[in-house]
């Protein structure tokens, strides 16, 4: 699908914010991921900002 560009780049920049921008209608309860997929820390939609459950333990 995407070529894995961010998945390869983000480990080299561990302090970089991982933020996704999507339309609210694209939000689904669960997204299948692979071993090397980088997870988003925040997801921004036209309706607001979502903090994924597995990131709620991280400081903002």
Q: Can you describe what's shown?
A:
The protein is mainly beta. The protein has one domain (5-55). 8% of the residues lie in helices and 17% in strands. It has one helix and three strands. A three-stranded mixed beta sheet has the order 1-2-3, with no helix packed on it. A hairpin with a 2-residue loop joins strand 2 and strand 3. The longest helix has 5 residues, at 5-9. The chain is globular and about 30 Å long. 0% of the residues are buried. The model has no long low-confidence stretch (mean pLDDT 86).
SS field, number of helical segments:
1
Domain module count: 1
Work out the helicity level. Answer: under 10%
Determine the mean pLDDT: 86
Can you tell me the overall shape? Answer: globular
- In whole angstroms, the N-to-C terminal distance is 30 Å
Portion of residues in beta strands equals 15-25%
Radius of gyration: 12 Å
Low-confidence stretches: none
How many strand segments? 3
Question: Which structural class fits the helix and strand makeup?
Answer: mainly beta
Biggest sheet character:
3 strands, mixed
Strand order of the largest sheet: 1-2-3
Task: Give the SSE string.
Answer: HEEE
Oligomer: single chain
SSE topology:
Layout: H1 5-9, E1 19-21, E2 42-45, E3 48-50
Parallel strand pairs: 1-2
Antiparallel strand pairs: 2-3
Describe this protein with a few key phrases.
about 60 residues; mainly beta; three-stranded mixed beta sheet
